[in-house]
Specification:
The protein is α/β, with parallel strands linked by helices and 293 residues long. It has 13 helices and nine strands. The strands form two sheets. It has a six-stranded parallel beta sheet with strand order 3-2-1-4-5-6, with helices on both faces. Strands 7-8-9 form a three-stranded mixed beta sheet. Helix 1 runs parallel beside helix 6 (124-130) and helix 3 packs parallel to helix 5. The radius of gyration is 20 Å and the shape is elongated.
């Protein structure tokens, strides 16, 4: 039974760690807040005192934390994975961070003989709970194949997209496309409401044509009800769009829709909606259209 460490027990990470335990891996976890996700204890997971202690007891470490500084801290900071790790270990980073930072972390871990693959995920909290995540993987082919059985316990679609950092670049593309899709659906829903149409009927009709999408099917109801329970936080998508826009600037790409989404999310966060599901972009469109927002 392979021993796997899991760092980061947020909305996504706790569900992912649980799925690893259910798949038969011997799982040890660490989280900055030690008593997070107590439901994991019933699945037989162990808890480590520090990332370094976790690394000492496992063959592979999975990381799923919020941002680049968090990854730097748990991998390379005091009591980090590098301090407790050993040559031959593998780190699978499922966080969403910048491609350049990922390449830097891989180089620093390589000094210790530790390999890294970046494996950011898409599918939100639902996908994490159901183990149906889509996973974009960057790394050396041998490392990716070594990671594949672990990733298979977490997701349904696993694609090796290139060398280290490529997974993060694909995730940036994913978040840019999502920004446009959410905005498009929000605008369509608001237009239907303003036109006095039966919005649920409209969604059903559009779902059979070229406008169909996961967002239309699964988030239009929230936009109509103006209620946005947690799925994927506005604040996290805003962070991800920042990564994508930085990459675009570096490469000379213009992303006007992503820039608009980021600006609207900045307003939402300022108005106290950082923890809402990102379908709350509809709040902005509703408000600008004279509807309750």
């Amino acid at each position: 039974m392979e021993r796997v460490g899991f760092i980061g027990l947020g909305t996504m990470g706790a569900a992912m760690a649980a799925n690893l335990a259910r798949a038969g891996f011997a799982v040890t976890v660490w989280n900055r807040t030690a008593d997070r996700a107590l439901e994991l204890d019933a699945l037989g997971v162990d808890r480590a005192a520090t990332p370094a202690d976790l690394a000492r007891s496992v063959e592979t470490v999975v990381v799923c934390v919020s941002d680049t500084p968090d990854v730097a801290s748990v991998l390379l900071g005091p009591d980090g994975v590098a301090e407790g790790g050993r040559a031959g270990q593998l780190v699978i980073d499922c966080s969403t961070i910048s491609p350049a930072a990922t390449r830097g972390f891989a180089a620093e871990l390589a000094v210790h003989g530790i390999s890294l693959v970046d494996a950011p995920v898409s599918g939100g909290s639902e996908g994490a709970q159901k183990a149906t995540l889509t996973i974009f993987v960057g790394g050396e082919p041998a490392d990716v194949e070594r990671a594949r059985p672990i990733l298979a316990a977490l997701g349904k679609t696993i694609t090796h997209v290139g060398p280290v950092g490529a997974g993060q670049a694909v995730k940036a593309v994913n978040q840019v496309i999502l920004a446009g899709t959410y905005l498009g659906v929000a605008e369509g829903i608001v237009l239907a409401m303003k036109a006095g149409l039966d919005v649920e009927q409209v969604v059903g009709a559009l779902g059979g044509g070229a406008a169909q999408s996961w967002v239309l099917a699964n988030r239009s109801g929230r936009m109509l009800a103006n209620d946005y329970p947690l799925g994927f936080k506005v604040a996290l998508h805003h962070k991800d769009l920042g990564i994508a826009l930085d990459l675009a600037k570096e490469l000379g790409a213009e992303l006007p829709v992503a820039e608009l989404a980021a600006a609207l999310e900045t307003e939402l966060i300022g108005d106290g909606h950082a923890e809402d599901d990102m379908s709350a972009l509809a709040r902005s469109i509703r408000s600008k259209s004279g509807l309750p927002g």
